[in-house]
Amino acid sequence: MDETLVPGAWVRHPTQADWGLGQVQSAIRNRVTVNFEHTGKVLIDSNVVTLTVVDPDHG
Q1: Which superkingdom (predicted)?
Q2: Which of 20, 32, 43, 55 has the fewest CB atoms within 10 Å, counting from its CB?
Q3: What pTM, to 2 d.p., does this model score?
Q4: Beta bridge partners of 51
Q5: 36-58 pLDDT tens trace
Q6: Distance between CA atoms of residues 12 and 36, nearest Å
């Protein structure tokens, strides 16, 4: 698991830019729940998708 994917971290999905900025809600092993601004909550398998951690003020 990516140690930066902790609850509260801000992320972007690498291939779904239209989902907008997301905030990690939970991260248990490879299962990461993210609440995206335009899509809502999505369960991500971090073994399949590498989320990009961003600074919400610049990301």
Answers
A1: Bacteria
A2: 55
A3: 0.90
A4: none
A5: 999 999 999 999 999 999 987 87
A6: 8
